[in-house]
Specification:
The protein has about 90 residues and is mainly alpha-helical. It folds into two domains: about 1-35, no CATH class; about 40-94, no CATH class. About 40% of the residues lie in helices and about 10% in strands. The chain contains four helices and two strands; from the N terminus they run ααββαα. The relative contact order is 0.09.
């Protein structure tokens, strides 16, 4: 991936380092790849992992991913209002 063209300068101005995220994926990739098995349908680095399910359904695939609330947590702290952060976190992961 071309990290120089990742638009990280505009994200960095907002406090987000996109290029660091790409580097983190590269550092993890060899370790995560060791856990692959025949059910894995894609490679490391996407927004979700696809896993084939051997059932009677036609081409069943389980897609799983995780995410966070991002800067909403900072806003919740500033506003001293944390009652919606859990909802946001679950919404990003279900």
């Amino acid at each position: 991936m071309d990290h120089k063209n990742s638009f990280s300068a505009s994200y960095a101005a907002a406090g987000v380092d996109i290029t660091a995220g790409y580097r983190a994926v590269e550092l993890m990739k060899k370790h995560v790849t060791r856990t692959r098995n025949a059910g894995c349908l894609d490679d490391v680095g996407g927004f979700g992992g696809c896993f084939g399910l051997p059932t009677g359904l036609e081409e069943p695939v389980l897609v799983s991913g995780t995410d966070g609330c991002g800067t909403k947590v900072k806003l919740a702290i500033l506003m001293n209002r944390h009652d919606t952060i859990g909802i946001d976190c679950v919404a990003m992961c279900v």
